[in-house]
TrEMBL record:
All residue ranges annotated as the AB hydrolase-1 domain in the record: 11-108
Recorded superkingdom: Bacteria
Keyword Hydrolase appears in the UniProt entry: yes
Keyword Transport part of the UniProt annotation: no
Full protein name: Alpha/beta fold hydrolase
SUPFAM superfamilies registered for this protein in UniProt: alpha/beta-Hydrolases
Keywords carried by this UniProt record: Hydrolase
A Pfam family annotated for this UniProt entry: Abhydrolase_1
Length: 252
């Protein structure tokens, strides 16, 4: 079963994080949404505190989320997915439309994305935990590969004390090293979700281009696409206020 943080009451709202993220990334927004919904923030397979497994694909992650909903008797759910979590949410909605009422996808489209996390993976793999590095030493190693401070801080949230004096990453890096191509796969051409869908993109991000609108409408004919200006791919973290407003007005 997937690890989750649950808060609030009412109609279920599931939140799915992106690649190398976890439920903690959505804690503040989750609490805000919990004033109107029963919020479930999940750690997806091989992330956060959820199970580590050699199996890693969108089909497997959708099965995990579907089984989570069954185990908690959740139906007629709203779902928010960011990046990789958005791909999971899209596949869940198109293959289990009876389960999903409204879908919100943050800064990802249904198209194929070529691999683009090579520098991040190189930085993560450069950390040798057998040498028992401190948190500062881990960041110094990663900085040689990952110059962006915000990206490093996002990744550093995955550090935890496995035992006294021994740090580790919560995510399953060994599997990501071999299954990275799974992250970029496209939604199958024949999959369609007819219910209300909101895509929100970052104005400074290149994940959803104007040229992607036609493909989005093909899979999600009842969709709208909105932009938050002056933010990148982590739009919900860079401008949580506008993100919350756009999602809340859509869910009303």
């Amino acid at each position: 079963m997937l690890y989750s943080k649950t808060e609030g009451s009412g109609k279920p709202l599931l939140i799915l994080h992106g690649f190398l993220g976890m439920s903690d990334n959505w804690k503040t927004l989750g609490t805000q949404f919990a004033s109107d919904f029963q919020v479930h923030i999940l750690d997806l397979r091989n992330h956060g505190r959820s199970l580590h497994s050699e199996e890693f694909s969108y089909e497997i992650m959708v099965r995990d989320v579907f089984e989570y909903c069954q185990a908690h008797n959740l139906e007629n759910i709203n779902i928010i997915g960011h990046s990789m979590g958005g791909k999971v949410a899209m596949l869940l909605a198109t293959t289990h439309p009876e389960l999903v009422d409204k879908l919100i996808v943050a800064d990802i489209g249904p198209k194929f994305y070529p691999q683009h996390h090579q520098d991040i993976l190189a930085g993560l793999n450069a950390v040798d935990f057998s040498k028992k590095p401190s948190r500062n030493e881990v960041e110094e190693i990663m900085a040689k590969y990952i110059p962006d401070f915000g990206t490093r801080q996002f990744l550093m949230k995955n550090l935890y004390w496995q035992e006294p004096g021994q740090l580790a990453f919560r995510f399953n890096l060994a599997v990501f090293n071999t299954k990275m191509d799974e992250i970029g796969v496209s939604l199958q051409e024949n999959l369609v979700f007819e219910k209300p869908t909101l895509f929100i993109r970052g104005g400074n991000s290149n994940y959803i281009l104007d040229s992607d609108f036609e493909n989005i409408k093909h899979h999600f004919p009842n969709s709208s696409i909105e932009t938050i200006s002056n933010v990148g791919h982590w739009l919900h973290a860079e401008n949580p206020t506008e993100f919350y407003q756009k999602v809340s007005s859509f869910l009303k």
